[in-house]
Amino acid sequence: MVTINLVIKKKLAVKIVTYLKKVYPKPKSELLYDTPFQFVVAVIMSAQCTDKVVNRVTRSLFKKYKTPRDFAKAKPVAFQRAIASIPFFRVKTKAIIATAKIVASEYKGVVPRIESHLVALPGIGYKTAHVVLGELYEQYDGIPTDTHVKRFARRFGLTTHTDLKKISHDLETLIPKRDWKYVNNGLVLYGRYICPARPHDCRTHPLTRVTGIGAGILQKPREA
């Protein structure tokens, strides 16, 4: 991680976002779903888990559970068994069923489109809420920070924080709101397919060339 002043941070952020807008112009999650609430469930399940594993589980899970009411009626033990390969499956089962009951009863089965309503639901925090709002409603009122976003924001000196929400707010300060939608999706795909967390040589990577930071440095494993 490098330490740089605010003016340089903003210039770097512009360079990074310009690249992301060009390469990943249409933000779209790689999580599979057919209904809006299925996407909420997939995002909750994806915490500390790869999209690939989540999609493998939901391919069969979503054949049975489609609407909030379907998930609300799920038997916890059976649901836990169905998602047992997902990290923290017991905690996530409890959150998913509880959230489904609230959405089914208080929101008539419609996923809320207001951040404060979403973060009040079990299993949904700032990151999850803004991923959901962006994907389902093309509403980008915040920048979600996951492990990929955290890694690159710190690597390129855009933040010194480790708390995900604080990193989001740092990025929101540096980047014009009109471009917020490109950040999470772009950095996730960049980290997934170009610059993964495992140790490797980053000298030829696009963002290394664009920012001039990290040339000749081996990318370190994911930070705690």
Q: Outline of this structure?
A:
The chain has 224 residues and is mainly alpha-helical.
For this entry, give a set of tags.
224 residues, mainly alpha, Endonuclease III, domain 1, 2 domains, two-stranded antiparallel sheet, 2 strands, 57% helix, Endonuclease Iii, domain 2
Describe the structure.
This protein has 2 domains: about 5-25 and about 145-220, Helix-hairpin-Helix base-excision DNA repair enzymes (C-terminal) (Endonuclease Iii, domain 2); about 35-135, Hypothetical protein, domain 2 (Endonuclease III, domain 1), CATH 1.10.340.30. Helix 1 (about 5-25) packs across helix 11 (about 180-195). It has a two-stranded antiparallel ribbon. With about 220 residues, the chain is mainly α. The protein has 12 helices and 2 strands. The longest helix is centred in the first third of the chain and has 18 residues, at about 5-25. The model is unreliable at about 215-224 (pLDDT under 50). It is elongated, with a radius of gyration of 18 Å. It has helices spanning about 5-25, 35-45, 50-65, 70, 75-80, 90-105, 115-120, 125-135, 145-155, 165-175, 180-195, 205-210; strands spanning about 200, 220. Helix content is about 55%, strand content about 0%.
Strand and helix layout:
Layout: H1 6-23, H2 36-45, H3 51-64, H4 68-72, H5 76-82, H6 89-106, H7 115-119, H8 126-137, H9 147-155, H10 164-174, H11 181-193, E1 200-201, H12 206-211, E2 218-219
Antiparallel strand pairs: 1-2
Helix pairs in contact: 1-11, 2-6, 2-8, 9-11
